[in-house]
């Protein structure tokens, strides 16, 4: 790590957080946290009004930002160059291909210099654009602004749109007259974002976030009434479950979806009687998941019931969708993970993953004949966009690889004709032949093979001298796609190998890949990532003193864990909104995501065994005097998912316990939450900042 020390010379003295030891005891085990005071007591209120943050905490965060700026001040020109490159690869005045629905087609566009999307519609078969919502105009004067989309009513007269202007993910809903562009007086506060129209076009359903930021209630709002008059449709009293509300393509049912990370339950409200009580489909059963799509007189249900670990599709009568009436339609096939499904008048469609690669399967509902849409590259990404109308033979899907810009297709399920609608334009130019994409398999500690997707320039020497940015996530069953990113080209053009480690905790190789990276098996995730680094070194793609690891959120926890387990194998680490104080957070059931997260990590409040699982790896609890590489942590002050105090405490403890290692840098976005800044170019500035750190550590400035 001599080089990393050399590139961070003559740094000013970093901030030193005051120690105020606080102890807690669970299951007879006592821990002491000297930095617990950095957690604001009034965090619920502060998320809505950041100005009330404790001045002592604010002073410390601002001092950390000042120190970070001093440490990375010499990358200012590099950041500008990276930003310019990335911005040059984006078509500024871009527009989506509108989606047909009724008499119109709806889409989004960006204008030159604009940060926010504009929502528009045209006549169904083309014509003049009518801008329905100008995101740039709505964002004027706000430090942070994020739209929750625009949902039009069935009669196309009104739209619901939502926004968050704090970064705290409490969304305000407004109702817009789509003909005039004027908002009505209706203002719905503290929602989860978005709503679902009733067919009458005069009312809609939404979920309300409680004071602990949990979507616990579904309300029915009638236009013109105050929010206080809204009818409570359903309340979820178990704090361990999330809740959402959705609608069907046929507009005759409202779905209330209740779930945690391994169990789900649906309740249905017929739109023929909006005052009725929602009807339970199948009572929640621990470990059993299901999701629904309407197919006319039947429902198609995607589920892992009856031991279908990689999921199957069943059908049930529309008027009697209970589990006792479920009939297999697409049987369970081990190793074939069904990810999502949707139904249309004549076809059933699903997205599945085999051997780590996705494909779309179409079944004729009348004949049962099936065919698949797949591609031949070693690693690629496939997105099923479907259609906005039920009576259609045409669906939409997207395709890209790490070298191939995104392509959008319309696909006729009956004739099997595919029409290329749009290819992602790279204004500054892009030649796919200049780059190589590969997928290699890294043997992990127990013999499992971990897929690793690679992107590098064709002229990059694979003799161990190339720097590498190794990205990982590994949680919640999330699969990181091997998709095209114009931003990664800035690294590849500078000689980097960009790598994605498809580690356990995701569903990259099926549902078992997820199960074997959670709860008591969580350490497989970390060891898989280290195995990916080892394999890349062994095969000559890079060397240990050239690997910069990167991950965010749960992937930030991964960064903290591998820093503790193998600090000598990484030249630098980028941890964005890192979930590093896992044990403390999982012990605090007042935090927004804690009870719903217990099925993912374990419940240390109730179980000593699960306490010990988490305690064995929780990064903050294992900081010691080790040769840690330079670490950059990034957080958002109003982040409700990974609270700002986790990375703040982590950096403070790293400095205290490993004074000769690092340096350890913290950047707190004082006007943003979990996703960082909200504008499309503001986001590029953040990526340029992260990449500048990687390039500095790699000695490539």
TrEMBL record:
It holds the Pfam family Peptidase_S9_N. InterPro entries: AB_hydrolase_fold, Pept_S9_AS, Pept_S9A_N, Peptidase_S9_cat, Peptidase_S9A, Serine_Peptidase_S9A. The keyword Ubl conjugation does not apply. Belongs to the peptidase S9A family. It comes from Rhizobium oryzicola. Residues 15-423 form the Peptidase S9A N-terminal domain. Residues 1-28 are annotated as: Disordered. Residues 483-700 form the Peptidase S9 prolyl oligopeptidase catalytic domain. This is S9 family peptidase. The keyword Ribosomal protein does not apply. Keywords: Hydrolase, Protease, Serine protease. Residues 16-28 have a biased composition (Basic and acidic residues). It comes from the Bacteria. The lineage of its organism: Bacteria, Pseudomonadati, Pseudomonadota, Alphaproteobacteria, Hyphomicrobiales. PANTHER family: PROLYL ENDOPEPTIDASE-LIKE, PROTEASE FAMILY S9A OLIGOPEPTIDASE.
């Amino acid at each position: 790590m001599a080089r990393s020390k050399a590139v961070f010379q003559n740094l000013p003295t970093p901030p030193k957080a005051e120690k105020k030891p606080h102890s807690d005891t669970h299951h007879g085990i006592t821990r002491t946290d000297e930095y617990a005071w950095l957690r604001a007591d009034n965090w619920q209120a502060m998320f809505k009004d950041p100005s009330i943050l404790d001045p002592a905490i604010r002073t410390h965060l601002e001092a950390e930002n000042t120190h970070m700026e001093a440490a990375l001040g010499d990358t200012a020109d590099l950041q500008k160059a990276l930003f310019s490159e990335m911005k040059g690869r984006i078509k500024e005045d871009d527009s989506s291909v509108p989606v047909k629905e009724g008499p119109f087609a709806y889409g989004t566009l960006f204008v030159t210099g604009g940060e926010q999307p504009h929502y528009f519609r045209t006549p169904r078969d083309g014509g003049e654009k009518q801008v329905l919502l100008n995101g740039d105009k709505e964002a004027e004067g706000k430090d942070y602004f994020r739209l929750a989309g625009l949902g039009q009513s069935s009669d196309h007269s009104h739209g619901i749109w939502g926004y968050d202007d704090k970064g705290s993910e409490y969304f305000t809903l407004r109702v817009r007259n789509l003909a005039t562009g004027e908002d009505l007086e209706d203002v719905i506060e503290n929602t989860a974002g978005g709503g679902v129209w009733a067919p009458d076009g005069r009312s809609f359903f939404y979920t309300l976030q409680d004071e602990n930021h949990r979507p616990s209630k579904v309300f029915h709002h009638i236009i013109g009434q105050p929010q206080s008059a809204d009818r409570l449709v359903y309340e979820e009293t178990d704090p361990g479950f999330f809740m959402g509300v959705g609608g069907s393509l046929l507009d005759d049912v409202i779905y209330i979806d209740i779930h945690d990370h391994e169990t789900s339950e649906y309740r249905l409200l017929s739109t023929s009687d909006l005052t009725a009580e929602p009807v339970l489909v199948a009572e929640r059963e621990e470990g059993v998941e299901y999701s629904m799509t309407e197919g006319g007189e039947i429902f198609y249900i995607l589920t892992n019931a009856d031991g279908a670990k990689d999921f199957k599709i069943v059908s049930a009568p529309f008027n009697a969708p209970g589990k006792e009436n479920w009939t297999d339609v697409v049987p369970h096939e081990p190793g074939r993970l069904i990810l999502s499904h949707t139904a249309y008048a004549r076809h059933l469609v699903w997205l599945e993953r085999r051997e780590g690669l996705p494909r779309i399967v179409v079944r004729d509902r009348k004949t049962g004949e099936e065919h698949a849409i797949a591609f031949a590259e070693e690693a690629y990404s496939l997105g099923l966009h479907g259609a906005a109308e039920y009576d259609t033979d045409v669906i939409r899907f997207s395709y890209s690889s790490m070298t191939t810009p995104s392509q959008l297709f319309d696909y006729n399920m009956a004739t099997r004709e595919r029409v290329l609608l749009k290819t992602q334009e790279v204004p500054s130019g892009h030649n796919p032949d200049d780059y190589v994409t590969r997928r290699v398999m890294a043997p992990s500690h127990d013999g499992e093979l971990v897929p690793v997707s690679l992107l590098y320039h064709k002229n990059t020497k694979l003799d161990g001298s190339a720097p590498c940015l190794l990205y990982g996530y590994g949680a919640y069953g999330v699969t990181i796609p091997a998709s095209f990113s114009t931003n990664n080209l800035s690294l590849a053009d500078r000689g980097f190998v960009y790598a994605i480690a498809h580690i356990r905790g995701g569903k990259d190789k099926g549902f078992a890949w997820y199960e074997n990276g959670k709860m008591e098996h969580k350490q497989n995730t970390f060891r898989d990532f280290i195995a990916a680094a080892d394999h890349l070194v062994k095969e000559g793609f890079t060397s240990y003193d050239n690997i910069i690891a990167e991950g965010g959120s749960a992937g930030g926890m991964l960064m903290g864990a591998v820093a503790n387990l193998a600090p000598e194998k990484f030249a630098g680490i980028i941890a964005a909104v890192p979930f590093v104080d896992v044990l403390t957070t999982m012990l605090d059931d007042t935090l927004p995501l804690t009870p719903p997260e217990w099925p993912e990590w374990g419940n240390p409040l109730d179980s000593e065994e699960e306490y010990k699982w988490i305690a064995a790896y929780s990064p903050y609890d294992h900081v010691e005097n080790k040769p840690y590489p330079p670490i950059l942590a990034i957080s958002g002050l109003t982040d409700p998912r990974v609270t700002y105090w986790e990375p703040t405490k982590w950096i403070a403890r790293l400095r205290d316990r490993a004074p000769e290692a690092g340096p350890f840098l913290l950047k707190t976005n004082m006007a943003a939450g979990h996703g960082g800044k909200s504008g499309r170019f503001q986001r590029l500035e953040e990526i340029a900042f992260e990449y500048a750190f990687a390039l500095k550590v790699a000695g490539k400035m």
